[in-house]
Every structure is written in C-alpha cells, then in structure tokens.
Amino acid sequence: MEREQRIPAFELPDQDGKRRTVEDLAGPKGLVLYVYPKDDTPGCTVEAQDFRDLLADFRKLSYEVAGAAGPRRQPASEPRYLRRL
C-alpha cells in the first residue's frame, strides 16, 4: 500500500473476539493500520510500543491506530485479528 491509500473493506475479530471493520476503528480522518506477522514476539512488541508511544500524536491529527496480527491461539477459521491501541 502507498501512503494515504484507502484500506480495502474488511472485517476481522478484535482481541476480545468482537468483529470489527475499518469504519469501527477509524478516527475522524482515518485509521493508521500496522500489520505484524505474529503476536507477542520481540520485534512485533517493539513495533506496537512505538505506535503506542505515538498514539497521542496520531489522535491530535484525528487518526486512530490499530494493529492486525497473524495467528493467535484461535481457531483456524479466524487466522487474524485486530488490536486497537
């Protein structure tokens, strides 16, 4: 994807199992979505912490932030999930 490119419509479960769409998560100007391959790994944790540390800056600009992770101890029918910061 390119900067400012629209995210295609999708629906995934969040960390609590509730189904979410981009529209559910986006702030007034949009959503910053970062994707990481596997939850609870050192590199992915650092990346999530970096986004967390910048969350107030994104929100000042009217954006929300969410991460999309790979498999996480859940049924094979739900191979990915969203985590809102």
Instruction: Give the strand order, joined by hyphens, for the main sheet.
Output: 3-4-5
**Helix-residue proportion:** 25-40%
Unreliable segments (pLDDT under 50, ≥5 consecutive)? 75-79
Structural class from helices and strands? alpha+beta
Average pLDDT score: 78
Structural features, described:
26% of the residues lie in helices and 28% in strands. The strands form 2 sheets. It has a 3-stranded mixed β-sheet. The longest helix has 12 residues, at 42-53. It has helices spanning 22-25, 42-53, 55-60; strands at residues 11-13, 19-21, 30-36, 63-69, 81-84. A hairpin with a 5-residue loop joins strand 1 (11-13) and strand 2. The chain is globular.
What's this entry about, in short?
The chain is an alpha+beta fold.
Keywords, separated by commas or semicolons:
85 residues, alpha+beta, 3-stranded mixed β-sheet, two-stranded antiparallel ribbon, 3 helices, 5 strands, globular
Q: How does the SSE layout of this entry go?
A:
Elements: E1 11-13, E2 19-21, H1 22-25, E3 30-36, H2 42-53, H3 55-60, E4 63-69, E5 81-84
Parallel strand pairs: 3-4
Antiparallel strand pairs: 1-2, 4-5
